[in-house]
Write a structure and sequence with these properties.
The complex is a heterodimer of chains A (about 210) and B (about 240).
Chain A (H helix, E strand, L loop, with lengths): L5 E4 L6 H24 L13 E3 H4 L2 H23 L7 H6 L9 H5 L3 E7 L5 E10 L7 E10 L5 E2 L8 E6 L11 H6 L3 E4 L3 H7 L4
Parallel strand pairs in A: 2-8
Antiparallel strand pairs in A: 3-4, 4-5, 5-6, 5-7, 7-8
Chain B lengths: L7 E11 L2 E11 L4 E5 L6 H8 L6 E8 L6 E4 L13 H9 L10 H13 L15 H12 L6 E5 L7 H16 L3 E5 L3 H7 L2 E6 L1 E6 L1 H4 L2 H10 L1
Classes of the chains: A alpha+beta (about 210), B alpha/beta (about 240).
């Protein structure tokens, strides 16, 4: 036998090293995930309300909030109708016939003081705008609403709805009194007492749940 | 060519139990260096478990010693079969690369090994199939690839677990010739084999395993009709 000859004893297989490695890998994964959760920026989801905005969930009564939510949901249907019908906006009768709340003539509409809706098409060139104005004919627990649809088309066919906007619409709310605004620019609406109603922000939700 | 002998292997009092089933019991066996040593025995007798024990893949009791004559300690192993998903996008070359080099196969086959890989695949009539999908190969072609990976780099101990399965006659002759050449080059070959007639021709030594070692020696001495009848009629 040469000097480098060697007898190797074959040891029985043991899982110890594998187990230790697996346990370590598990700990590393859990620690990394925990670090990400603990160190994540917590206020990203929260956008503070601006002076002309109100939080629908905390500053509206139950009836007004219900109407706001109907409007908020239906705004996407209105936008979809517009896209699917050669850029034509649905008028109030169309929305009523399609039973789209809050335009549908139903018990909820009666309970909210028989809301009357007015539709205005304000399309101009490549700016597509439509306004749905609603106010109660009778005594109502709700104020008045404006659903303001707006988006732009560029000459090359691109579609966008404005800087800092996350939706192709906004909803304005006037708690007391009603007068048709002269125009629908932000400035005019704000000076006439209208406030942009926004849904809960992430921060508000945390507060509401008592976790912050 | 320098002939470097393979190892001598000793099993002493080997025992193996899996899930309360005794697979091997008090097995004592010596495999001499540079010989072709065939393992025979009925199905479920513990032959594959014995070679897995030698590879350190079981929780055995007793002593398993490999006496290496030098620093060259390469072991080639041909498993009974390999389960590969039909959809696995792995070529023959990928598979061999994965088996023969430590760095990941997706980085490609290293230059040092590319020559011997081509040579070995050609030796096994697999030249030109390097880019074929491994999962698309026939059973016989897969066995050739499995055999090829065991020959790279040149093993000093070659362990074969029924490599002739799915192999046609030409292929079987080719395998036998390569195994014989390896043994002549000093490699120790442990070969699980079911073809008793072929064992008589090809083996330097044969051992019969059925939980225990039933007999071991030169084929002409131990593969008597009486011995074989007793073993295989009882299984």
């Amino acid at each position: 036998m040469s000097a480098s000859a060697q007898t190797v004893i074959v040891r029985p297989r043991r899982n110890r090293d594998e187990l230790i490695f697996l346990a370590l890998a598990t700990v590393v994964i859990i620690a990394t995930a925990a670090a990400f959760i603990l160190l994540r920026p917590k206020d990203d989801a929260a956008t503070p309300l601006r002076s002309y905005q109100i939080s629908a969930f905390s500053q509206m009564n139950r009836d007004a909030l219900g109407l706001f939510m109907d409007l908020y949901t239906s705004a996407y249907d209105v936008e979809m109708y517009h896209r699917n019908n050669s850029e034509a906006w649905p008028d109030v009768a169309t929305l009523e016939n399609n039973l789209v709340p809050p335009f549908a003539v139903d018990e909820a509409r009666a309970n909210r003081g028989k809301f009357v809706w007015t539709f205005l098409n304000l399309d101009k060139d490549n700016v597509h705008r439509a306004v749905y104005i609603g106010h109660a004919e009778e005594s109502s627990p709700c104020g008045s609403f404006i659903l303001f649809m707006e988006h732009y088309h560029t000459p090359d066919g691109a579609y966008f709805f404005g800087i800092n906007r996350k939706t192709p619409f906004n909803i304005w709310y006037l708690e007391k009194g009603f007068a048709l605004p002269k125009d629908f620019s932000e400035g005019t609406l704000i000076s006439a007492g209208w406030r942009e109603a926004v849904p809960f922000k992430g921060n508000d939700e945390l507060k509401r749940l008592g976790r912050k | 060519m320098t002939i470097s002998a393979g190892p001598r292997i000793e099993f002493e009092g080997l025992g193996l139990s899996i899930d309360r089933n005794t697979i091997l019991e008090d097995l004592n066996l010596t495999i001499e260096a540079g010989t072709v040593h065939c393992l025979i025995g009925p199905n479920g007798g513990g032959k594959s478990s014995l070679v897995k024990t030698l590879l350190g893949q079981t929780r055995h009791s007793g002593r398993v010693a490999i006496h290496w004559p030098d620093d060259c300690r390469t072991i080639g192993y041909v498993p009974q079969s390999v389960a590969i998903d039909k959809t696995m996008p792995m070529t023959v070359l990928d598979f061999v690369t994965m088996c023969v080099q430590q760095r990941p196969a997706f980085t490609g086959l290293g230059r040092k090994l590319s020559g011997i890989v081509s040579e070995t695949l050609a030796q096994l009539d697999m030249k030109g199939k390097e880019k074929a999908m491994f999962a698309d190969l026939s059973g016989g072609e897969r066995q050739r690839v499995l055999f090829a990976q065991a020959l790279i780099p040149k093993p000093r101990l070659l362990i074969l677990d029924e490599p002739m399965n799915s192999i046609d006659r030409n292929g079987a002759e080719m395998f036998s010739r390569i195994i014989r050449e390896a043994a002549q080059g000093g490699t120790t070959v442990i070969w699980i084999h079911h073809d008793l007639a072929h064992v008589k021709q090809a083996a330097d030594a044969v051992s019969c395993v059925r939980r225990k070692l039933l007999f071991s020696g030169k084929p002409a001495d131990v593969m008597t009709e009486k011995n074989l009848f007793e073993i295989f009629s009882a299984s």
